[in-house]
Amino acid sequence: xxxxxxxxxxxxxxxxxxxxxxxxxxxxxxxxxxxxxxxxxxxxxxxxxxxxxxxxxxxxxxxxxxxxxxxxxxxxxxxxxxxxxxxxxxxxxxxxxxxxxxxxxxxxxxxxxxxxxxxxxxxxxxxxxxxxxxxxxxxxxxxxxxxxxxxxxxxxxxxxxxxxxxxxxxxxxxxxxxxxxxxxxxxxxxxxxxxxxxxxxxxxxxxxxxxxxxxxxxxxxxxxxxxxxxxxxxxxxxxxxx
Length: 242
What we know:
By secondary structure, the chain is mostly beta strands. It has helices at residues 6-22, 234-238, and strands at residues 24-29, 39-40, 50-58, 63-66, 68-77, 98-101, 120-126, 136-144, 151-153, 159-167, 184-194, 204-205, 213-216. It has a single domain (6-241), classed as Sandwich (Immunoglobulin-like).
C-alpha cells in the first residue's frame, strides 16, 4: 500500500435545522460548498497548472478550543484506477502530482478561515484502498495550528478545512501517465475535529451539508458511497508539534 406552498417551506426549515444539529461536510472545486462547482473538466493537453478541490465543514456544536482536524477522501473510478490517479513513490505520477494546503490567506474568502495561515500538516496517499482496491485510492489529511492558536468555532458556520491540489504534471507528451480523460470522483468521507484532551470532544462529521463529493470529467454522479471513517487519536495529531 502506498501511502434540498407552506408544507414544502416547513420541510426545508426542518431539514436545515437537522443539518445544523449534525454538522456537515462539503467538497467542491474552486471554492467551498455551493460557492464552488461539482464537476471539473480538463482537456488533458498541458502539464502546467492545477485543479483544486476544497473541503469545508460546519461543526455539529460550538467547540471552545478547536486546534486541528483529520480527514479522509476517496478517489474512485468505474473500473481500474488509471495511472494518472496514482501518486507516490514508485508510481507513474510520483510524489509531485498531488499536494495539500491549509493556507486560505490569499482566498477564496466565501467561508471562514480559522487557520489564518498558521496550520501545519500533511497527507498520506494510499493505493490500493479497500473496498474494490483496484478502483480506489485514499488520501488521509491531518493538520493542526500551534497550541496557543487554538480557539472557538461556532455551529452553523462553514469553515475551510483544506485544499486538495491536483497538479497536471505528466499529463501529456513524453513520459505521460495515461488516464487523465477517464471519469472519476472524489468523495469526502469524513472530517474529525480536534480539541485538547481535557475537552473530551473530538467529533467526527460524515453528514454532507450540501455535497460531499466532486466529479472529474463528468463522472457518473451516483459514485458516492460511504466508507467507514478512520478516526485518529490525540496522540497522532500531537505528533505535528514535534
